Amino acid sequence: MTTAIAEVGVETAGDLLKNWQGHRRLTRRVIEAFPEDKLFAFSIGGMRPFSELAWEFIRMAVPIAEGVATGKWAEFSFAKASVTTKSELLRIWDEQTARLDEVFAQIPPHRFSEVDKAFGQWEGRGIDTIRYAIDNEIHHRGQGYVYLRALGIEPPPFWER
């Protein structure tokens, strides 16, 4: 016996952005929780320091929104962060967060369902590429939680976005 599943629209573009920005607010609090020296140097098991993970999120968020908005995908930058202080990382984070709101508002509705090859690497609908960015941030933020706990620091509650 099979069960039919009804097609239901359960999320608007505004809901998607609100969810993404909620995750970004939480990730920002994780960055803030790190002592300055540990943010750039501490790792476990050969994983990257959390500053490098945060830089990856910075390199992805706005370029993904721009690519979904326009269908034009710049080459993905694998460059390491040139920032060396928490305050500079947070400043750039905040600038990118504000820019994400601006760019996201320019995404035409049809672009969420159109298929592109993002950064020449993976092919999918615009909404799936955005979800990838969110999932990637959640995944790597989990590493940050492990790092903070290993340092004896209580991470921010994950449900407070």
Automatic annotation (TrEMBL):
One matching Pfam family: DinB
SUPFAM superfamilies in UniProt: DinB/YfiT-like putative metalloenzymes (SSF109854)
Gene3D superfamilies linked: dinb family like domain
Residues that hold a divalent metal cation according to the record: 140
GO molecular function per UniProt: metal ion binding
Keywords: Metal-binding
Family of this protein: Belongs to the DinB family.
Name of this chain's protein: DinB family protein
Top-level taxonomy: Bacteria, Pseudomonadati, Acidobacteriota, Terriglobia, Terriglobales
